[in-house]
Specification:
572 residues; alpha+beta; seven-stranded mixed beta sheet; six-stranded antiparallel beta sheet
Length: 572
Amino acid sequence: MTSRKLPLAIHVCPPSGASFEVPLKGVRLTIGRSARNDICLNDPFVSRLHAEIRRDGERFVLYDSGSANGTYHNGQRIESSVPLQLGDVIRIGTTELRVADITSTASGAYKTPPTFHFPQSNQPQSSQIAPTERFILLKADVLCFSPAGGSTATPPVAAPTLPQPRRLKPPWLPLFSKVVETLSMDQPLEETLDIILGLAFEAVAPERAYLLLRDTQGHLQVQAHRATPQATHLEVALPWSLCTHVLQDGNPLLVSQLEGLNVNPPLTGSLIAAPLVVGREVLGMLYMDSCLDPACFDQNDLDLLTTIARVAAIKIENTRLLEVRLEARRLEEELQVAREIQLGLHPTRPPQLSGWDIAGLSFPCREIGGDYYDFIPRSDGKLIIAVGDVAGKGMGAALMMSSVHAALRVQAQTARTLADIVAAVNDYLVESSPENKFLTLFCVELDPATGVLRYASAGHEPALLVRADGTYLKLSAQGIPAGIMPGFAPTIHETCLAPGDVLAIYTDGLTESRNEQGETLGIERLAQTILTYRNLSASRLRDRVDEAVSCFVGRAPAADDLTLVLIRRLRA
């Protein structure tokens, strides 16, 4: 193929409705029935991802994307790919696409609509008509426009600047049946919106058409559009009072023999609009105009567009509700899987060590949480016990918790010291975690043979050591949370557990549990509970602590994840 430097375009000629043009200027242009494509074809014989055109140096190549009904190039079905040149004809389903020179100034006119805005100077503070224009309300909610200061009579028809033959409009009863049939199909909302506008464009035969929906702030956003090649480059500036009539009052609108329509360049034309209404809520509107024909629309067009808008609004609302339900179900299923994975990371049972009794529990306040605890045996017979608390809750905290779980287990299998293990985990989190995510960590290395306990803290709550003689002390160890600063070197502290002693390591979700009066449980209540039941087994002591927290909190909702590990040295 001869190299060309002139810009090319794909001229799309659907079997019904207006043709349009898409420039070939990117690396890839996708074609199919899905609204995610650069060229979306409303054709049952077209696959959702049917074909694509890719740039290869200075040429373009057509690829079939494994479509069901094939892609045809100059009458021949292509097997995989074929280079394109000026004048080539592509047939996809019942749609013909031609490779041609760009004939308009539109840049991606099909994918990106021309500018559509409401002049700020025309936006009234209330529903009153803007002072810069005047309207006459006729029967059947048909509006005629005359410039401010002009006669109240309907303005005379001005000769079109660019006279064009009026497009024939198909019979609307069969077409409306097609609308109802199409809207009964189950498909994504963005595809539904594009199909709705395409059918309305085919039925009413304007020069430009827009489907606009309100966003969460109440502002109109263009969701789909169509335009004839002669109108793709024109800017649309709809007077705010027209928008008020349709969106606030919920009335359909037809403006014929319109002079002074705010477009660039200024032209004589007509417009038509219908609200998308469900109950008392106006979701948006269908808007169409003709910049070249001052009598493009009539009462039948208004009735048809209004009927399509009513059916479409119900479809839009139902599709939205369905997508919300499906998204909620998908998230629920994903959260359930994540919860099962996270629960699988927690120890299934405590280690069985002669002379020791160990138990633990962890409850997320949501489906998944950011608390962590683990028992990791080392090759020298010692045991690492870790309790962590990730800042935040939910999915992000759970993902970071799983990273810490893996990192600690990997480091514990080496011959590194406890200080080096905590430092390595900290450096790993600094490199791999967002700046606003960090972890408090209390890490213990227990020698079961001697009862010697070495521990380090990275900004965590102090552990609680309850002695057999009824006294208790806090094992505080200063340190910053892990994941904040590289090169953190934790301080190692050492103590010894005597027979009958109990060590409690916990997250702040336990001591900061609040009751209905707003009081917190606090470390003193926790210590008293352990002191009272310190002679019970670790599992029964764990249950008593859980029971004490539940009784204290009452009906107040949990505000944080809760984790507790109990290490009890048995009496001889």
